């Protein structure tokens, strides 16, 4: 039997490599819309964050999401993402 490879991704907050299924994917679509991708399969450029608010705050502070998504992110989008992250964390 061959061993199945586990996909690893880096959290933009804490910068640790983790299993892709343990992280939340934030995407930027072709139209420039930024949202959380719960399925992990939507089209667009993706960035990953751990499922806790501390990593989200680190990613906002060090502009990790902006670097990964290669775009400027307005404060209103961060507020919306924070609400969605709080709902997921519970």
Automatic annotation (TrEMBL):
NCBIfam families: RNA_bind_RnpM. It comes from the Bacteria. Residues 9-83 form the YlxR domain. Pfam families: YlxR. InterPro entries: YlxR (IPR037465), YlxR-like_sf (IPR035931), YlxR_dom (IPR007393). This is YlxR family protein. Coiled coil: none annotated.
